[in-house]
Design brief:
The protein has about 140 residues and is α+β, with helices and mostly antiparallel strands. The protein has helices at about 10-35, 40-55, 125-135; strands spanning about 1-5, 60-65, 70-75, 75-80, 85-90, 105-110, 115-120, 140. The chain has three helices and eight strands; from the N terminus they run βααββββββαβ.
Length: about 140
């Protein structure tokens, strides 16, 4: 079984950090105007910020064995039968849909009849090479 980590994109990280910081600033302004105690301050700002950071900072990884492409991204997990994959688009970004990924310009994997998933392994070519060893019939579509 070969394991691939997801590429981390600076745009994705900046967006998530920006969201967390804006939440903190809004809570601080609200609490300062209402003169909250230190315990209230930590409870209202610290805990939600900690949980938001855990949920929002993605750490996806993908693994390939002889039968399945497995993806894990925090609370999202799943398996795709490699024999059901019929097409992979390289270097594209799926803006709408299911994305256990943390970067742009990854891979759109088409499987079954109308299903697709967007992933961003660190090293698209290595990932494709490994996948093609188990299903050489996969059509690879690269940008022109």
């Amino acid at each position: 079984m070969k394991v691939f980590r997801s590429r981390q994109d600076p745009l994705m990280e900046a967006t998530i950090i920006g969201l967390i910081l804006s939440m903190i600033i809004m809570m601080i302004v609200t609490l300062r105007t209402e003169q909250a105690t230190f315990i209230e301050f930590v409870t209202i700002i610290g805990l939600p910020t900690f949980f938001m950071a855990i949920l929002l900072l993605p750490r996806p990884r993908y693994s390939i064995d002889s039968q399945y492409l497995t993806y894990q991204s925090d609370i999202f997990r799943g398996k795709i039968a490699i024999k059901k994959i019929y097409k992979i688009e390289v270097g594209k970004t799926l803006w709408v849909g299911f994305k256990p990924a943390a970067a742009r310009k990854g891979l759109i994997v088409h499987y079954n009849k109308y299903k697709e998933i967007y992933i961003s392994p660190d090293g698209n070519d290595d990932f494709l090479y490994e996948l093609m060893q188990y299903n050489p019939a996969i059509k690879i579509v690269r940008p022109a």
